Amino acid sequence: MHSILNGIIFVIEFMAGFLWGDLLKIPLPGGSTLGLSPMVLLLIPAGIYYTLRTKFLPIRMFREMISVLIEKPDAKMQGDLSKGKLSGIQTLIVSTATRVGMGNLVGVVAAISGGGAGAVFWMWITALIGSSTAFVEATLAQLHKRKDSLYGGFRGGPAYYIHDFFFHNKPGEKLEEGVPKKKSIVAALFALSGLICWAGISQVIGNSVSSSFENAFSVKPLISSILLVLIAAVIVLRKNATARVLDVIVPVMAGLYFAMTVFVILTHLPALPHVFERIFSEAFGLRQIVSGGFAAVLMNGVKRGLFSNEAGSGSAPCAAAAADTDHPVKMGLFQAIGVFIDTIILCSCTAFIMLLTPEGMIKDLQGMDILQMAMNYHFGAFGKIFIAVILWLFSFSTFLGILFYARSNVSYLFGDNWASQTAYKIFALLMLFVGGLAQYTVVWDLGDVGIGLMTIFNLLVMYPLSKEALSSLKEFEEKRKKLNG
């Protein structure tokens, strides 16, 4: 039994190392090399491809993104929403809940620690091209969504458009059928990879919360884990409580974090030009190239950007498909701006809090200790408490969000029944509890393997199906042009 367990751990660690390790190494001046992982080689070209195919959508249609974000649903849609259907803004909140987490806090700190201030610039670039990928996958999810007889409203995501691709189903023609009886192997593998990934993330969340509360309040991991699981259980085991709770948590936590950052910036305005000078000079600086540090700057920014915004992994489309909207492209625009909110705004918040802290105070620290010291510098003892609470909110909302994603994957694999839905929720709650008591590095690897496999299966089908999303975008723009005269 022990040897079997060791074998499983070896396979997980090997797969994580292969998917996220350096597959290709490019020599650079100064004797260093630029290492490219399979995930970077898949996601960056995909982002560039979709950015070109959508004619630089994140920039060209930014006003349109804002417009759909503030658009109010008409009277008919308001009535539908009261029957359990979700609005576009609600699905954006769900996807933002899962994007906003450790990547925005510790991930950004790690990127800057490993690659310097210049890594922030490459996170921004990654987000811009990732927005186009997020647009395409979310639009496809809307085009291939099903009616959800179990929860009400709609369900969908990559498992469903992958299924339709292999069974040659056209967008929308299977809307009434719910869960297909005959499964696609690739779609089933995507769904299974997602459930594995989210189980791993549940343990990571539990560990992050218990560690931060122990550091900030001296609360024992057992107590904080029990409380976290009980609160989560009350929400996730109820039929449709998740989206309503996230409607409250996400705007509050993101708003508070943004407001705190604005305060830090306003109280350090004279230092702001130097921060931007550092970001841009270290992103392109000859000093980094000659010293061999450019690779670290570039790859820390790119990898952390990909991990944070999740564009291309197929997670967010599970939420995008649930929206009740009058045009699929609107959900694509919602998810595109979701990447902007996550990386350009919230990740930048952490970057500025850190870069506006004297370097000497944090140079010998690592991980959350860096961020807690930075917050302590800006806000005193309150800063340490604030970060612990914000991390709890970020992590808790991530857990709720991934269980919302899991709905459609569980349904695809096991059909429309409460038994399988409840079983996965209980399993995730158990993982949350176990993670709070002990840190298992293999669990981080398990999450990396899951999201890596999801990305491969998702991108495999996105390329040939993207013409549907691009056609829908063209039709949407022509319709808007006629309406605007």
TrEMBL record:
Membrane topology type: Multi-pass membrane protein
Keyword terms of this UniProt record: Cell membrane, Membrane, Symport, Transmembrane, Transmembrane helix, Transport
Membrane-spanning parts: 7-28, 34-52, 92-113, 119-140, 184-205, 217-237, 249-272, 336-357, 377-405, 426-443, 449-466
One Gene Ontology term of the molecular function aspect: amino acid:sodium symporter activity
Family: Belongs to the alanine or glycine:cation symporter (AGCS) (TC 2.A.25) family.
PANTHER family with a match to the protein in the record: AGSS FAMILY TRANSPORTER, SODIUM-ALANINE, AMINO-ACID CARRIER PROTEIN ALST
Name of the protein this chain belongs to: Amino acid carrier protein
